[in-house]
Amino acid sequence: MSTFFGSLNLDFRKTVRKMRVQTAYTNRYVFRLLIAFMLLLAACGSSDAVDDAPANGEEQTPVEQSTTPDPTPAAPTEADSHGTPAYVLTPTPLPLPDADDEIPFMWMVTAPYGNTMYLFGTIHAATPDLYPLSSVIMDALHRSDYLAVEVWAPDFMPVDLFTYEDTRMINDENIDDLRPRVMAVLAEYKDYICDFLMWTDTSLDSIESAHPNIWLQVLTWLIVEKSELSRLHALDTYFIGQALHIGRMEILSIECIAETEKAFRGLSPQLHARLIENLLDIDQAVEHVEITYEAWRYGDVYAMRNLLSQDLDMIDDDTLAAEHYDMMFFQRGLRMTDMASYYLGQGKNVFYVVGAFHLTRENGVVDMLIQRGYDVVRIQ
Question: Does residue 77 or residue 328 have the better pLDDT?
Answer without folding.
Answer: 328
